[in-house]
Design goal:
Elements: H1 28-31, E1 43-44, H2 49-52, H3 63-81, H4 92-106, H5 151-164, E2 212-216, H6 220-231, E3 235-240, H7 248-254, E4 259-262, E5 277-280, H8 286-298, E6 302-305, H9 306-321, E7 326-331, H10 336-349, E8 354-358, H11 364-374, E9 380-384, H12 387-390, E10 400-403, H13 411-414, H14 417-425, E11 433-437, H15 441-444, E12 463-466, E13 477-482, E14 485-493, H16 496-500, E15 509-516, H17 525-540, H18 545-554, E16 563-568, E17 571-575, H19 582-592, E18 598-603, H20 615-621, E19 622-628, H21 632-638, E20 645-648, H22 652-662, E21 668-671, H23 684-701
Parallel strand pairs: 2-3, 2-5, 3-4, 5-6, 7-9, 7-10, 8-9, 10-11, 11-12, 17-21, 18-19, 18-21, 19-20
Antiparallel strand pairs: 1-15, 13-14, 14-15, 16-17
Length: 709
């Protein structure tokens, strides 16, 4: 799953410090030399004045707290990557070394809570996850009129991360060696475990057997649809407007019985052909295939796409082979690939078999066919879906799905923002759990109004939300700022005792702290919310919380998505070539700009976007903007009132030079173009490579070796 992984970390019941239920083993922290009393308690939203304060996203750490936390995290990373780390934890010497760093870094910090704190306002420590009994608290130090400084939050966070990777010493019997992930057998549970079908499903699938099928477009998805339909016994014709599309030779070699037709798409492809169904590739714009679909629908043919075929295949496998996996689906303007990849990693770390497919690659149908042939149909599917794939889908019913955000993109394809949002909203189907970004008004509008049932209260569709603010309902995920340090948190319903002690008008929540946001290896506010979305989705698949925290800590991000490239003369360079729309660049600026000034490289093909939403974040976070590409004049006009220097560059290497001249030590140079790349490059990856090469050349000219970040 993760190409960075070398040694699988334990998960489930084998995770250090956690029992089979995912709860911390009592006494594990003390045996590892960690002070449980440093961990901040879970508290109700009403009783924690800090939680009640307005949240402004992820505030930067106080300087001292950030330094101390970084020191301990650096030591933790060293321990984690040492050769003698095994799946069961670290050795005694390393644990002692880590504890000595903790002691040295935080010597003299006051420990414990004020003695007169109300007992009912203090719940279990953050590490006591899901069903764990709290450890016996140590006697707190009594400090009259003393308020612990912000550095205590850094120690609490450092203790948390250290405990995640600390060795659990068995108190009575030695622990069995943990199994590698691939050898862990899933628990037989009819509620969430998929039953592997018998035989070879997908061969001669009844709905397509001996039917004539037309596939429009011979790209990757078109070829996958042709393979699948042939596999299911259909007679297949593939049509493309190009005389010789790149996949034609592969089609003719793999599927010699498939007929290929080149030329314009019109009703003649349907009329008199005896077709059963017409399926279109997602890359085709609606105008391209509109006449074909209109003719097909007029005579009652099935129309759809690769996602339609995938949904039909799962329905058939369920009915004929009792295969009922969890399906987690992700879309949104930005963050799709990160959340898809991270969700897959969390599910895998929780001990479930998983397949990741869709827009992220490989194709849905090729992945499904491969697992059928190998006899490895997974318990969980994690799918990245684009608006192109979702535009006309029907019958797709995921277990849980999310729309991460909606900003202007692909308006040249969809026509307007409303059609674009409507396509995205199709991901939820009719029954699945809706995972919604509560900070995005367009996304929240996708939640249908409550349904009124006679003699009952109105029924709201099942949903939960995530965001960079405090959660508001039981089950929601969010960010809590504790002494200047952001924590990933989840809201839990108050217990019955607390309910009886409060009025009905009060919000009945407990806030469970999960992990300090600074423990994530992916940077920025937007990535903290991406992590929350992935947690919510994986939780919907029945994954235990404890092993998912390992997955969060491990995840290193995706290429070309705010990816650190190098540190040269104190300036950090970031590759965000995948930032091909305004929303992505706004997210990157906001995420990186909290603690540094940014010199931004913008430009390319704007795809009809409005660039004005860049004005506010550029004015707030940017020192200067360097413009490249076809639509540089449009961007310059949109940013005219931003109050920052706007510099034109003929190409990307020149833009890197210009950005370097403007940047100061401690700044970042961010290449996040907010545009497509095809005016100057083959694709966004080519653009990224040119940027990275320019940074390396810059370092070489300065007589420096490139220090990777």
């Amino acid at each position: 799953m993760n190409p960075h992984d070398e040694t699988p970390l334990p998960h489930g019941a084998d995770a250090p410090g956690f029992d089979a239920s995912g709860a911390v083993v009592p006494g594990a922290a003390e045996s590892a030399g960690l002070a449980v009393e440093h961990l901040p308690p879970m508290v109700s939203a009403q009783d924690d004045a800090q939680a009640a304060a307005p949240q402004e996203g992820l505030a930067p750490l106080p300087e001292q707290a950030g330094v101390e936390f970084a020191q301990v995290m650096e030591q933790a990373d060293t321990v984690e990557s040492a050769e003698d780390v095994t799946a069961s934890g670290v050795d005694d010497a390393q644990t002692a070394d880590l504890q000595s760093v903790d002691d040295a870094a935080f010597e003299g910090v006051a420990e414990g809570a004020p003695e007169d704190a109300a007992a009912e306002d203090v719940a279990e420590p953050a590490l006591l996850l899901e069903g764990a009994a709290p450890a016996e608290p140590a006697s707190p130090a009594v400090l009259d009129n003393y308020v612990a400084p912000a550095i205590s939050a850094a120690k609490a966070a450092a203790d948390f991360v250290a405990q995640i990777f600390a060795e659990v010493r068995a108190s009575d019997e030695p622990e069995a060696a943990p199994l590698p992930i691939a050898e862990v057998a899933p628990v037989a549970d009819a509620s969430d475990a998929a039953q592997e079908p018998q035989g070879r499903p997908g061969e001669g699938m009844a709905p397509l057997q001996d039917k004539n099928v037309l596939v429009l477009g011979l790209g990757a998805s078109g070829l996958a649809m042709a393979r699948w339909c042939v596999r299911c016994g259909a007679q297949v014709t593939v049509a493309d407007t190009r005389e010789a599309p790149p996949q034609l030779a592969q089609l003719q070699q793999e599927l010699p019985g498939v007929r290929f037709v080149a030329g314009a798409f019109d009703a003649s492809l349907v009329d008199g052909q005896g077709l059963h169904a017409v399926y279109r590739s997602p890359g085709l714009s609606p105008a391209t295939f509109a006449s074909v679909f209109q003719a097909a629908k007029a005579i009652g043919l099935v129309t759809g796409s690769e996602l339609s075929l995938y949904a039909a295949a799962l329905a058939y496998l369920r009915s004929q082979h009792a295969y009922a996996p969890c399906v987690l689906a992700i879309t949104g303007t930005n963050g799709k690939t990160t959340v898809t990849s991270l969700t897959g990693q969390l599910v895998e770390r929780a001990g479930k078999t998983v397949a990741v497919a869709g827009n992220i690659g490989p194709t849905l149908l090729d992945t499904l066919a491969g697992h059928i042939d190998a006899g490895t149909l997974p318990e969980v599917w994690v799918l990245e879906l684009s608006s192109f794939q979702l535009d006309d889908v029907a019958g797709f019913e995921p277990t849980a799905a999310t729309v991460l955000n909606i900003t202007q993109d692909h308006l040249d394809w969809h026509g307007d923002i409303h059609a674009y949002a409507a396509a995205k909203a199709r991901i939820f189907g009719q029954t699945g759990l809706m995972v919604l970004n509560r900070e995005d008004a367009e996304v929240m509008q996708m939640l249908p109004p409550p349904v009124r049932v006679k003699l009952q209260k109105p029924q709201q569709r099942e949903h939960l939300t995530f965001g960079a603010d405090m959660p508001r309902r039981p089950g929601d995920f969010g960010i809590e700022i504790v002494s200047g340090m952001p924590w990933l948190v989840r809201a839990l319903e108050a217990d019955e005792t607390r309910k009886r002690s409060r009025s009905e008008a009060e919000e009945e929540l407990h806030i469970q702290r999960l992990m300090p946001a600074d423990a994530l290896r992916i940077r920025g506010r937007h990535n903290a919310t991406n992590a929350l979305a992935a947690l919510a989705l994986a939780s919907a698949a029945g994954c235990s919380l404890a092993p998912m925290l390992y997955g969060l800590r491990e995840y290193r991000g995706e290429p070309h998505r705010v990816e650190p490239v190098a540190l040269v003369n104190g300036v950090e360079y970031f590759d965000d070539s995948k930032g091909t729309n305004v929303g992505a660049t706004v997210a990157a600026l906001t995420g990186l700009g909290a603690d540094r000034r940014i010199v931004l490289i913008l430009g390319g093909v704007g795809k009809g976007q409005d660039f004005s939403p860049l004005t506010t974040p550029v004015a707030r976070y940017a020192r200067a903007v360097v413009l490249i590409g076809r639509d540089a004049p449009l961007i310059r006009a949109a940013l005219a009132d931003a109050g920052v220097a706007l510099i034109d560059a003929a190409d990307l290497p020149q833009a890197v030079d210009a950005a370097t001249q403007r940047a100061h030590a401690g700044d970042a140079v961010l290449m996040s173009p907010a545009c497509a790349s095809f005016d100057m490059f083959k694709d966004y990856e080519h653009r990224a490579h040119v940027f990275c090469d320019a940074v390396r050349a810059l370092a070489q000219d300065a007589g420096q070796s490139v220090e990777g970040v």
